[in-house]
């Protein structure tokens, strides 16, 4: 702020200088001197003419005429002296002008310059670290609505001077999503995506912002981004949530149910979201004219030996086979390793063969394998477990404690 006020003083002094400079300049106009010279020349010429007229006998009172001529020349001198005596000093104009300029400048700024807003803006920028800590939950007190707006203002200011900060744009976009500000969220996420087009978090953020838009082209771009994200090896649960929401909004209730069931597979039953997903599935089933719980789903609870969990990069593969133990699965699903024990749900959406569904089996076997190299074709060194033969509708429990 000190620099700002110094700049206003400099500009005011410049304005005063523009006023003072012309007034202090000496008048280079020689009108008075030229007039005196002209009067003298006229006087001399007239004297010559009178002399010639006298020599020719045209005048009889040469002396009176010369006296009159001298008097007319002298009459001009007091007038010039009076003008000099009545001329104002330049400072008599400069001082009031400078005072008026200074007073008027600062009075107009006080009225129309929004100085209070500028002061608040600088204060908000100084509070950015503290606001960021509150946002991240480092303090017990959450952000108020006013503090949220201040944080957005401070972050936009920082990004104005550092526009290549993709993380900053991502954070600004998430704040826009929190505030339901579609324009802010979309613009910020697009900027972040331009800087880092291969970042999955930014892709997800942009998809979230575009899903809030009422424009069909934006929603189509969001689906394309989610389609790309769902093909990744590790899929964020929010990807399925957005896909389910979009499907439900488009009244594609079967797709919504499928995505919500996938989300349930990624959550333990004790997670609060699990029950919420159950209600969402029931709602979609009701919209389809269905009732009760779907009969094509199987709940599988899996425990694992500690020796099987030594590779954090391994993945869990769960498959359903007919009761005779056929190696070809009827349904299968792949999950991140995660923590154990855990509960998963597999259903007809996980079917592997055309024309054969999990719900068509009266009895089956569930197998679970911890795949260490990411190649389902190789099993050397992998840990696995297998359930007993289970009837349709019964829950399944198994332990991974064997190694190939």
Describe the structure.
It is a single chain. It contains 14 helices and 9 strands. The protein is of the alpha+beta class. Among the domains are: 119-282, Serine Threonine Protein Phosphatase 5, Tetratricopeptide repeat; 297-403, Sandwich (Immunoglobulin-like). The strands form 2 sheets. Strands 2, 3, 5, 6, 7 and 9 form a 6-stranded antiparallel beta sheet that branches. Strand 2 (315-322) and strand 3 form a beta hairpin. The mean pLDDT is 79.
Core attributes:
404 residues, alpha+beta, Serine Threonine Protein Phosphatase 5, Tetratricopeptide repeat, Immunoglobulin-like, six-stranded antiparallel β-sheet, three-stranded mixed β-sheet, 56% helix, C-type cytochrome biogenesis protein CcmI, transmembrane helix, TPR-like_helical_dom_sf, cytochrome c-type biogenesis, transmembrane
């Amino acid at each position: 702020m000190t620099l700002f006020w110094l700049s206003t003083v400099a500009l005011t002094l410049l304005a005063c200088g523009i006023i003072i400079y012309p007034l202090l300049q000496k008048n280079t106009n020689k009108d008075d001197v030229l007039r005196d010279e002209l009067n003298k020349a006229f006087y001399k010429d007239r004297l010559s003419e009178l002399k010639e007229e006298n020599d020719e006998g045209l005048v009889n009172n040469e002396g009176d005429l010369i006296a009159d001529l001298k008097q007319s020349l002298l009459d001009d001198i007091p007038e010039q002296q009076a003008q000099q005596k009545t001329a104002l000093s330049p400072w008599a104009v400069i001082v009031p002008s400078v005072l008026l300029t200074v007073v008027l400048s600062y009075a107009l700024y006080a009225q129309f310059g929004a100085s209070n807003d500028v002061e608040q803006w600088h204060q908000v920028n100084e509070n950015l670290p503290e606001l960021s800590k509150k946002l991240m939950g480092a303090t017990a007190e959450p952000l108020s609505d006013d503090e949220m707006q201040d944080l957005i203002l401070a972050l936009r200011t920082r990004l104005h001077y550092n526009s290549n900060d993709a993380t900053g744009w991502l954070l600004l976009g998430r704040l826009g999503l929190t505030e339901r500000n579609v324009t802010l969220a979309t613009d910020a996420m697009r900027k972040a995506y331009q800087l880092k087009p291969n970042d999955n978090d930014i892709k997800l953020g942009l998809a979230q912002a575009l899903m809030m838009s009422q424009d069909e082209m934006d929603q189509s771009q969001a689906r394309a981004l989610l389609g790309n994200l769902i093909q990744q090896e590790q899929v964020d649960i929010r990807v399925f949530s957005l896909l389910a929401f979009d499907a439900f909004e488009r009244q594609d209730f079967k797709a919504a149910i499928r995505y919500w069931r996938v989300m349930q597979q990624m959550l333990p039953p004790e997670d609060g979201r699990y029950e919420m997903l159950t209600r969402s599935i029931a709602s979609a089933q009701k919209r389809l004219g269905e009732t009760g719980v779907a009969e094509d789903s199987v709940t599988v609870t899996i425990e694992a030996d500690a020796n099987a969990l030594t590779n954090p990069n391994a993945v869990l593969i769960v498959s359903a086979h007919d009761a005779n133990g056929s190696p070809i699965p009827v349904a299968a699903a792949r999950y991140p390793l995660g923590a154990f024990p855990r509960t998963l749900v597999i259903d007809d959406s996980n079917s592997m063969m055309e024309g054969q569904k999990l719900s068509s089996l009266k009895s089956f076997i569930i197998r679970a394998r911890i795949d260490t190299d990411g190649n389902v074709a190789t099993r050397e060194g992998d840990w696995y477990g297998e359930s007993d033969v289970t009837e349709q509708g019964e829950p399944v429990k198994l332990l991974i404690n064997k190694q190939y």
